Amino acid sequence: MSRILILSCGTRDLLVRYFKKSSFEKVVGADCSELAPALYEADAHYLIPRMKDPGYFDAVFAICEKEKINVVLPLQEDELNLIAENRRRFEDRGILAVVSPVEVLNLCRDKYAFYKYMKGKGTAVLPTYDSISDFEKAFSDHEIEFPVFVKPVRGAGSIGAMKVTCMEVLKALFEHSEEPLLVQKLCEGREFGIDLYVDLISKRPVDFFAKEKLRMRAGETEKSVTSTDPILKEFVLRAVQNLAVAGPIDMDVFFQDGQYYLSEINPRFGGGFPHAYVSGMNTPEYIARNAAGWENESYLEIKRKKLYVLKYSDVMAIEAPLQS
Amino acid sequence: MSRILILSCGTRDLLVRYFKKSSFEKVVGADCSELAPALYEADAHYLIPRMKDPGYFDAVFAICEKEKINVVLPLQEDELNLIAENRRRFEDRGILAVVSPVEVLNLCRDKYAFYKYMKGKGTAVLPTYDSISDFEKAFSDHEIEFPVFVKPVRGAGSIGAMKVTCMEVLKALFEHSEEPLLVQKLCEGREFGIDLYVDLISKRPVDFFAKEKLRMRAGETEKSVTSTDPILKEFVLRAVQNLAVAGPIDMDVFFQDGQYYLSEINPRFGGGFPHAYVSGMNTPEYIARNAAGWENESYLEIKRKKLYVLKYSDVMAIEAPLQS
User: Fold this and answer.
1) From the CB of residue A266, how many other CB atoms can be counted at a distance below 10 Å?
2) Are B316 and A310 inside 8 Å of each other by CB?
3) Res B172: pLDDT
């Protein structure tokens, strides 16, 4: 029987509940804020220092020892890297770190390197430029036109992303930005979110789920509907063959002019995972089986019912938040 | 026993549940989108035309007749006005419209008129200007300084609102904006959200709840904590004496430099109402009593426990959305 520590559990209340329904014996939540509601869903919960604090690993390992943790699951971008870079320290304690290799994490976060790499592997990706001169050349060659989409080369979610309609504004942004930017073809077609589980032992994709995003709000999917297009599944499974991702994976795919384009890969549980879960994709259980030393069988051929999944807000009321 | 129709129920799943727990015999939800999750919480649900569609009232009155509705509750800004303007048509059918008078709605939506009115009544409000020349005069008189807050004179939530740090950008915004703007002192102090119920029969405030907003996201309160400051309560109750508001009221108040300032009044259920409800403010029941012809007793002196309320996302999965 395994015991899992979920790091930066934040507002992932549903995810914690799904783990509690799986065969994990104990689900422990940790966060640096005592106002993270998912903490209070877990069987046990701990306040830990911020990732950059020198006391971070001491606190994490102390929880692991006290709670006899054998699986650790990071959810946030920066924490993925931190845990992957210290994978050996977890392994030395008999703890499985559910995270892709560091090189894959870095490639997925550097959106321009990712574009070049995936394009080189023959995956359809949206035309992307990391300098204003490259963009101007492509623009004068009629390879791309306005409006375009501008975002930081390294970035999470929709932070700092915007639509730009003319060269003047684009140049001003590139001149004044404090961080490297990239320009991408603006995709106004349909958008899909993918949940994938790549077995931690066999390294093969075990389950795949696709949903079409029907409405977004502040970078999050508000409403979505199950997609069962076999062409999308084939496109995604072919694309990930080129990357040594492992564990739960979230992907964004666009569909425009009759073709799918890979937009990004986030090697972690996505915020839209509940749609996959209510459709039968039981990633918490796949992780539990891997933690027990078993490979998962493949669920790739399972037919899933068409479901509309609609997000709404619930609240958790706490009288006495955790004290550090 | 009363039966209520909640219009544009949208993502107000918790509110629908609270009404279902009250003494209403039946809670009916309506929305123009079949993907409004709160529809599926209600005892019965209907798709209706958009507010501006000529078939809107026919559809609403048909539901009222079929479901023997005697209370109608609008939630959205535009719908408040529409229902209040047609109050007589509801009254003629024996239906109580839970909404403030049209004049009050108009005053609350025109943020500059609201500022002038409340200031004239002696309520502390944030310095506000509706023309660049007025602002420049106040600026040269050192009455206000940058950064400032710019927002549309008529607007809901945080749409179109932004922080501005210099006169050049401010002037450009006023020149190019398609709608009237106003400039307000930027308040970087603490922010409070108020829930109030003004009895529909006695016209007196019946219950009051205050929370401090601890974290916002995309214009919504993510985390809040109960506030029991008697000075805040007195400030709010004094301010609303000057307005003929009725029913559920949401208010925003700032605290800066040792003083409370009224920011805005939204004469409807606020998105943060669940915090008030879990603290014992049972507005659905107050409405039910008014609908039965009874005045509510006052709960203004009730002491409320300090609670932290933390928002998270839940999902509703639907196989077959409503068809119109």
Assistant:
1) 22
2) yes
3) 83
Provide the token pair at A167.
């060269």
Chain-chain contact of A311 with B311 (C-beta, under 8 angstroms): no
A125 token code pair: 């990706």
- pLDDT score recorded for residue A160: 65
User: What HEC string does chain B produce?
Assistant: CCEEEEECCCCCHHHHHHHHHCCCCEEEEEECCCCCHHHHHCCEEEECCCCCCCCHHHHHHHHHHHCCCCEEECCCHHHHHHHHHCHHHHHCCCCEECCCCHHHHHHHHEHHHHHHHHHHCCCCECCEECCHHHHHHHHHCCCCCCCEEEEECECCCCCCCEEECCHHHHHHHHHHCCCCEEEEECCCCEEEEEEEEECCCCCCEEEEEEEEEEEEECCEEEEEEEECCHHHHHHHHHHHCCCCCCEEEEEEEEEECCEEEEEEEECCCCCCHHHHHHCCCCHHHHHHHHHCCCCCCCCCCCCCCCCEEEEEEEEEEECCCCCC
- Which tens digits make up the pLDDT trace of B101-150? 999 999 999 999 999 999 999 999 999 999 999 999 999 999 999 999 88
B308 closest CB neighbour out of A12, A309, A321 = A321
Four-way CATH pick for B3-99: 3.40.50.2000, 3.40.50.720, 3.60.10.10, 3.40.50.20: 3.40.50.20
Contact B278 A37 (CB under 8 A): no
Give start-end residues of each CATH 3.40.50.20 domain in chain A.
3-99
Identify the burial level of A304 via C-beta atoms within 10 angstroms of its C-beta, where 0-12 means exposed, 13-18 middle and 19 or more buried.
Answer: middle
CA distance B193 to A18: 33
> Count of CB atoms within 10 A of residue A319's CB?
8
Q: What are phi and psi of A282, to 5 degrees?
A: -100, 65
Tokens of B147: 């950064």
Which residues in chain A come in under a pLDDT of 50? Answer: none
Q: Do B313 and A314 touch (CB under 8 A)?
A: yes
User: pLDDT value at position A98?
Assistant: 98
Contacts of A312 in chain B (CB under 8 A): 11-14, 37-38, 313-316
Q: What value does the mean pLDDT take over residues B242-254?
A: 97
Q: Within chain A, which residue ranges are assigned CATH 3.30.470.20?
A: 188-310
Residues of chain B with CATH 3.30.1490.20: 127-185
The CATH fold assigned to B188-310 is: D-amino Acid Aminotransferase; Chain A, domain 1 (3.30.470)
- The CATH superfamily of B127-185 is ATP-grasp fold, A domain (3.30.1490.20)
How crowded is the C-beta side of A260, counted as CA atoms within 13 Å? Answer: 23
Q: Select from B270, B286, B269, B285 the least CA-distant residue to B199.
A: B286
For residue A11, give the nearest of B218, B274, B312 by CB distance. B312
How far apart CA A248 and CA B15 sit, in angstroms, is 34
* ipTM field: 0.92
Higher local confidence (pLDDT), B15 or A176:
B15
Rg, chain B, Cα only: 20
Residue type, B232: L
